[in-house]
């Protein structure tokens, strides 16, 4: 994968500010404002929302605070999220050397991406799927503030069996690697209905009930269930860190989106 291009930001100035200083300060404030239970240590993965920071940044801060407390090491982050804009079959990895944000370039683990593309048929390059997609991009500034040294494996889920992806990743993960899943919860119900539906899904997730999650309304159901499969195999424990809706963070309450921060610990 020589002479690869850098994927430019698609939603800077829309989902989050394009000004580097303002962005760094905002992300740091979201993380600093979060408080974690004492038993959230040895984090192996997190689930975080991907809406505009005005709405979901507070909840995202909890997930990334869980990562920021980890020891400083060279890490590979497998960042998984659902494709919203381009339909395709498989998991799109792109063909990039880095993902650019206003805070700088996030290097892609190109060697790992090449191996994945060569070794499993459900991995595809499909850079066109990444071009305008927001779900991975909005997590990157949080990762840049949380983790001093990491390389990225950008995994955009189309139509694919999450169990196959989970089985493949279990063979690839090294001890210091991390899983980050980007997903919002229910969309465009009134506040009370959204809370009821989201709490059912969260309960299923915390109980390891994949069927309950698949029948919920999270847009990232596929990568979430892939993470659940991996957690069951590795003995990881899920912890709910924060839940709220856009109605809690400045939007109206007639049509809201739900957000949760969840950490998986060893």
What would you say this structure looks like, in words?
It contains nine helices and twelve strands. It has 266 residues and is an alpha/beta fold. It has one domain (5-265): Protocatechuate 4,5-dioxygenase, Chain B. Helix 1 packs across helix 2, helix 1 (20-33) packs across helix 5 (140-146) and helix 2 runs parallel beside helix 5. It is globular, with a radius of gyration of 17 Å. The mean pLDDT is 96.
Task: Give a concise summary.
The protein has 266 residues and is of the alpha/beta class. It contains nine helices and twelve strands. It has helices at residues 20-33, 53-68, 110-119, 127-130, 140-146, 162-172, 191-206, 210-214, 221-234, and strands at 5-7, 43-48, 75-82, 91-92, 96-101, 104-107, 123-124, 150-157, 178-182, 187-189, 237-245, 256-265.
Give the name of the CATH architecture.
3-Layer(aba) Sandwich
Domains (count): 1
CATH topology (fold) name: Protocatechuate 4,5-dioxygenase, Chain B
- As an assembly, this protein is single chain
Overall pLDDT: 96
Strand fraction: 15-25%
**Could you name the CATH homologous superfamily?**
LigB-like
Tally of helical runs = 9
The string of secondary-structure elements, in order, is: EHEHEEEEHEHHEHEEHHHEE
CATH level 1 class label: Alpha Beta
Radius of gyration based on Cα positions: 17 Å
Q: What does the main sheet amount to?
A: 9 strands, mixed
Query: Could you say which overall geometry the principal axes of the C-alpha atoms support?
Result: globular
Beginning-to-end CA distance, first to last residue: 34 Å
**What structural category do the secondary elements indicate?**
alpha/beta
pLDDT < 50 stretches: none
The portion of residues assigned to helices is 25-40%
Tally of strands: 12
């Amino acid at each position: 994968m020589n002479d690869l291009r850098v994927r430019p930001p698609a939603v800077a100035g829309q989902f989050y500010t394009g000004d580097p200083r303002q962005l760094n300060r905002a992300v740091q404030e979201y993380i600093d404002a979060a408080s974690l239970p004492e038993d959230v240590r040895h984090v192996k993965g997190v689930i975080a929302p991907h809406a505009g920071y005005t709405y979901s940044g507070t909840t995202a801060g909890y997930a990334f605070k869980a990562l920021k407390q980890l020891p400083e090491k060279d890490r590979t982050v497998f960042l998984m999220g659902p494709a919203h804009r381009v339909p395709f079959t498989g998991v799109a990895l792109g063909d990039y050397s880095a993902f650019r944000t206003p805070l700088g370039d996030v290097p892609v683990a190109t060697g790992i991406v090449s191996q994945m593309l060569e070794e499993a048929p459900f991995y595809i390059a499909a850079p066109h799927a990444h071009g305008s997609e927001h779900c991975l991009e909005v997590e990157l500034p949080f990762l840049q503030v949380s983790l001093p040294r990491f390389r990225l494996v950008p995994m955009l889920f189309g139509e694919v069996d999450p169990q196959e992806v989970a089985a493949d990743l279990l063979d690839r993960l090294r001890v210091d690697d991390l899983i980050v899943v980007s997903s919002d919860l229910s969309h465009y119900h009134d506040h009370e209905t959204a809370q009821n539906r989201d709490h059912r899904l969260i309960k299923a997730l915390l109980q390891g009930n994949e069927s309950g999650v698949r029948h919920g309304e999270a847009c990232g159901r596929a990568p979430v269930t892939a993470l659940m499969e991996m957690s069951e195999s590795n003995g990881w424990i899920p912890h709910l860190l924060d839940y709220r809706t856009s109605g809690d963070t400045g939007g109206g309450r007639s049509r809201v989106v739900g957000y949760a921060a969840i950490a998986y610990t060893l």
